[in-house]
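Researcher: Please predict.
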Amino acid sequence: MSRVVFLEERCKGCMLCAELCPKKIIIQSTRINRQGYKVAEVSEMDTCTGCASCALICPDCAIRVFRSQKGEGA
């Protein structure tokens, strides 16, 4: 299973990641960071394919994607 980690203190809540996610699993959280922004989060981590589209579009480099290795979790 792939995993997405949001660096919440860098996130400005622009939600570009949510717009680009092919699985539409990124949502706006109710959590607020120190800067006062509602941060993004993944609603269904087990659905994530690890495509990293979210990380590539993020203007603040606030997203890290860890892909599963082949055969893992199969």
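Model: The chain has a mean pLDDT of 93.
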